[in-house]
Amino acid sequence: MVHKLVHNHLVRRGDTFYFRFRIPAHIKRLNLSLPREIKRSLRTDSYSTALTLVCEKLLLIKQIRECNSLSNIEVLISQISDFSSELRLDAYYHQGEINQVSTLTLSEAWYEFSQWKSWTIKQGKANQRIFDNLIFFIGDIPVDDVTKLDIRTALNNIAGLPQRNKKSYKQLSLEQLVRMDIPDNDVVSGKYVKEHLKLCQSLFSRYLKSEVDLLTVSPTEGLKYEYQDNRYASLSDEQVRTVLEKSQHKPDWFRWFILLAVYSGARRSELLGLDKADFKYCPDTKRDYFHIRKGKTKAAIRLVPLHKELVERGLLKWIDTRTKERIFNIQPNRVTDLFTSLLDERVNYVGERIVLHSLRHTFITKVRAAGVSKVLVQQVVGHEKSGAGQTDRYTHAFQLKDLLPVIDNATYG
User: Fold this and answer.
1) Domains in the chain: how many in total?
2) Does residue 246 lie within any of the structural domains?
3) DSSP per residue, 226-252
4) Distance separating alpha carbons of residues 412 and 238, to the nearest angstrom
5) Planar angle of CA 128, 133, 136, nearest 5 degrees
6) What's the rounded Cα separation, in Å, for the pair 109 and 142?
7) Is the dihedral of CA 105, 108, 114, 116 positive or negative?
8) Is the pTM of this model over 0.85?
9) Are the CB atoms for 387 and 374 separated by under 8 Å?
10) What is the torsion angle, in degrees rounded to the nearest 10, for the CA atoms of residue 175, residue 180, residue 183 and residue 187?
11) Which has the closest alpha carbon to 219: 209, 229, 234?
């Protein structure tokens, strides 16, 4: 296809697109003085304009590759290096026709978009799974053929998929899953479905429309996905005590994981990412703390004081006995599966789900009920500071001593 040929000769540096053509080896042998590569600025930040200009050179590229005459090759090389204003004007008049030929398919647009984004490996894998769902229901069609109805239909179909981390569905393909009757308790959350819409908005509106000018209208404009927020439950003090008591009959590492979750409010992924070197002592406060070095946002990178209960129970001594640097060298789903065996209840009295993440909700609810400052709680649990308007912009990380009231108010009777 034409657009695949174009992409081989189109590069971007900063805000400017460039034409690049590597001269074939057999042509170089005809004239050793020829450069190895021809590179010219297209003097545009418009992707569609750049595509048009490069399309004008495709016939010349074909002629150069097939040329065996020294005299002809010099003329062709001169022509392919020339991006004069006359050629630009000619390309402009043919832009509509060429753009039509050069339209990307959804998978090709996704490849370029994912190269453009600066995702971590983890984010890239998560977004790839989301895209796999989308393209399964939309199809690998040209991006300018994707409609708002296509995306809305895909979202509604995705809402019927099961949670793929559950054992019953792990090894099944999407083709198999769409033929199954999925129990309500197993389907994905509304929040997860909405992440598909957010990715579509980023791909179509932010990238294809605003960044590379391939679309004039995004199919996501005005599209919303409403869902009932099935929140996670906050546990009662009695339920927390039950969780702690029953966790003592599980593997030793799991008992300490639950204790850390209960007394810090940290996310599962954050606790699983802790190394022995992340636990330190603060001489100013005479308190131990741990350092969360990476997370889903910048605010997730933080210092968290250790609750005295953890120190008294011997957490630091247990950490010293670990033979590997990573203190919880465990698969995430193993933690979740073990937690489900600690309580008989699956929802609370208002229908909110009781899951591992409920421990985080419980911690936040507990310390806020104790009257601790909201911004201090936000820093301890890794949320962006909010609620103070412009003042938030001037509020930086609090010292460890300021965070002690947050941790120390997490008591469960």
Assistant:
1) 3
2) yes
3) -----PBP---HHHHHHHHHHHTTS-H
4) 8
5) 120
6) 9
7) negative
8) no
9) yes
10) 10
11) 209
pLDDT digit string, tens, across residues 81-101: 776 643 444 444 444 444 444
Rounded Cα distance, 370 and 412, in Å: 12
Contacts 24+ apart (CB under 8 A), 142-145: 142/103, 142/104, 142/105, 142/106, 143/103, 143/104, 143/105, 143/106, 143/109, 143/204, 143/208, 143/214, 143/215, 144/103, 144/214, 144/215
CA angle 140/146/152 to nearest 5° reads 105
Q: Report pLDDT digits (tens) over 315-366.
A: 999 999 999 999 999 998 899 999 999 999 888 888 788 999 999 999 999 9
Helix (H) or strand (E) holding 181: none
Please state, in angstroms and rounded to a whole number, the distance separating the CA atoms of residues 134 and 197: 9
CA distances from 206 to 178, 212, 220, 368 (A): 30, 9, 10, 37
What's the CATH code of the domain at 327?
1.10.443.10
Task: Specify if 413 maps to a domain.
Answer: no
Cα separation, 409 vs 121, in Å, equals: 37
Pair (142, 60) in one structural domain = no
For residue 294, count other CB atoms closer than 10 A to its CB.
Answer: 11
Contact 190, 229 (CB under 8 A): yes
Where does 165-301 show beta strands of DSSP type E?
A: 279-282, 287-292
What residue type is assigned to position 364 of the chain?
I
Backbone angles phi, psi at 297, to 5 degrees: -140, 170
Q: Packing angle between helix 252-264 and helix 237-247, nearest 10 degrees?
A: 160
Q: Which of 211, 228, 245 is the last residue of a domain?
A: 211
Chain centre to alpha carbon of residue 218: 21
DSSP code of residue 201? I
Cβ atoms within 10 Å of 86's Cβ, excluding its own: 9
225 belongs to a structural domain: no
